Amino acid sequence: MAYPQNTSDSERSSLSDQSVSSRSFNRSLRVAEKKRRKDTAEDPFFLALKYFSDVEAGTPVTGNDELERNLVLVEKVAHSKGLSPEAISIMLEFAMSLRMGNSPCVRVLKCLIPASLVPQDAIVRGVVWLCVGKIPIATQVLFIKWVLTIFDLVDAKDQLRAIYGFIFSFITEENLCPFICHLLYLLTRKENVRVFRVRKLLELQSKLGRQPFLIHLLSLYKVFCPELVTLSIPSRMKSGFRNHNSTWKSVLTGVQKRNGFHIPSSVAFTIKDKTSSRKRKHCHLELPALTSVANKEAQTEQFSSKKVVPLVQLHSFSQLLENLHCIELPAQMGSLLGSTLALHYLDCVQDESALLRLNFWLGYAFHEEFLFCGDGGTTQNSEEALQFLNKLLSAQHFLQEGFSSSESFLYKFLKVWDGSLLCPQILALLSNIPVVPSSQIGTILFEPLMQLFLTSSLFFKCGLMECLNNMLLKWLTWHSVYALEDDLDISLNSHTSINMTLSGFKDSVMELVHFVGRLASVGLQLEGCHALLLSFILDFYETVCDTFQKYGLPLVIVPPPGVFYPALFATDPVSVDRLAYIMYRYKVNLMSAKSQEKLTKQAFHISRQTFCEFNQSLVVMVNCLWNSKMFNPGMAVQLGDELLLKSNVPQYWASFDLIHHPAFMSYAVDFHQKCWPERQDMDLSSIKHSKPWSWYLEYLFTQGYEGLKHFFQTNISQQMTAGDGQSNTQQK
Amino acid sequence: MSNQCFEMELQLHTEKSKRSCSTSDTERDLQDYISEIERVKTIHFNNTLALHRMQMWHAIGEQLKQNDPEADTLKALSERCMALCSNIKQLQQESRILQDQITEIQKKRLEMKRLTHEKMKEMEKIMSKEEHADTERYKAVLEKGQANLEKYRKITAMTQNVFKGILLACKINWLDDPKLRELAMTLEDSPISE
Fold first, then answer.
1. Domain check: are A130 and A256 in the same one?
2. Could you tell me the pTM of the whole model?
3. Are residues A78 and A197 in the same domain?
4. Residue A554: which of A514, A510, A616, A611 has the closest Cα?
5. pLDDT value at position A483?
6. Number of domains composing chain A
7. Where does the Centromere protein H C-terminal domain start and stop, copy by copy (chain B) (predicted)?
8. Residue of chain A minimizing CA distance to B37
9. Stretch B147-164: mean pLDDT, rounded?
10. For B192, which of A133, A162, A304 is closest by C-beta distance?
């Protein structure tokens, strides 16, 4: 259809009179006329577009003023407001069909700045023109670069996915390969991963070497179908796809700003520009919204009877239960962490491939964010990282177990952590680690923790104590539920097949408790027996003392002298009371263990050494608090007589009993005043007489010191007189 | 400890010939020495602590016995401490109870999870048994059918690939022909689900 090239005002009417015109042309003319009446400025542009859509093939380029004029006009509009979707279609078709040769094509491609959206139709057409194969390579590269630049502005992607195979075929072209890989990366879904494609990529790799773009695409394939891609992808992938949009980028942002319209970018990776700091186009840590793999409703596959329901369409727990066996997981596995239904699904169904994919995604996110930040990465993204970790923590809390990728990440991270970045989150993640075999626990966990502990502030020490306490609690809870019989293999994790015997588990717990004992002793010495640290440590030992009674684990570990004595000599009564409570619980546990052993003859054998240690501590405590027999020979705290005399403390042997103890002295004074208000000079030893002593004890117990009450009730025989107290110690 | 150091020094001085020692031995010895050092440090620290506290509180006790204004401030301070300690004790009791409740609930949830997994496993066993029971009769037919399915799936995939190859090799614009277009757009679909 050839139409007169130049239109002027005079010919307007003649055009409308033309008989040889299709209805659509008339209509578009009428529309054009209407538009023209409203806004005359648009007229030349519309006509220019018409020119480009109608120009015949083979029209000469050089010396064609018409072409030049229209092209300049289009470029002007493009650079100022951007081109409308229809304009883009027309111009792209014009360019890629090479109707007027290569040079206008290149010029047009360079000025294709969209104003809002790009119809996918146009891009499909462009790709088909690539198939025709008449376009020179450099222009092909330019076209693909353009597609990558405006990828986020394409209105829909299903047609592009339908021609995935055609796009894939261009991968063999060496110049196009990196860009095609990037485009495929953006388009790939699970269905596109085929064996022959994986083979092709591996072939290319052997030819071109381990190029980053190939590895990226292969890693994506691996995420979707781990069983098809067996090669190991290095988890450190520093460079993303190269930044290629410089030709259009500045103009595009300018246009978008002017239009006030900005679609956030989705999945393009960029690497650090050499000059500017790293541009974070992709939020690695943003948990993507739960979407379905295909943008269609749940439909029956044509030839199979299996109905697959995308997870995003389920909205209630009952719906989940109905469809439990035909759930389709979303393409972006990270989105599972944000949805409670998805977590329910993960919890109930042991879906190996889902977990594999999720762990792979997590591992990648961790690596990108925390282990390869580069400079300035942490400060920029700590808000994002915080959100991510919080979501991950709530997911782990819900599932009551950790993910293997977060575990391996932590072991690596602990070695480089400074102890302050995202401290509460990292410690919380740490407490979710499943039981570590005792052979490895020293090197992978204890060594870095020891280093961090010794060089950190008081609050970090307290935080770490709490973390280790939680870890122990979780291990014990897991054991109490999963170890049904003695010596049976305990599965560590509902998803792994690593099993551990009961003795192995006991070894790990013992290692942990001894490690904490060491940390506690050294920590208290470093911090001068700070009361806060002591409180966290006593929290830990409150958990440890009841391992047998509360959690059914046949293990008793007594606190080391580095913890026992600072607690006994503590200046606040709360700590002493807690120590008394802990010792009381130890005794209960030991006695029940002994009786059980006699009854059932089970293999729960507490070593003689444990009893000895415990007895020693018990005797010391009773002597010290009740019998006023401090600094006896045989105690661990032994000071020479001369030294004691030098200290100028009369009756030093009574200096830590319930009356003179630093923690209780104020109570003694208070009691003394209440008991004998008329006395002027205070003689605290007068409390030691039998009647005041029992009143004093009553008084102490009513102040809330239940621990002391239990302790003395179980350890002191009925007489309850000061100085006469017999302690019933457990002898073997 | 000091004896050991002295002995080691002697050994080093008088030793004429070099004694080879393995790293693992020395590491073990190192561990022993480290724990020995820690043990002695702890004892020393505890002794110092006991002595210090004893002296300190004896002095405080003496101060409290008097009736001067300093003693009064001390007494006021100790009253405040006692009140705070009662508070702390009460809160600790409450938190202990709550913690116990939390642990109980967590145990119950974990138990529930374990039971769920067991039930799922049982269900799968039963379902596979049922399938087996039904398919026993039609086993041969089913196998043949599956083999056929596999064959046709491969044929489809190959045909799709070949057609794609032909289209590419011909270097034509298949969009212009509606029939070709329709066909080409379906070349990516796999009609038979895996």
1. yes
2. 0.68
3. no
4. A510
5. 73
6. 2
7. 1-188
8. A522
9. 89
10. A304
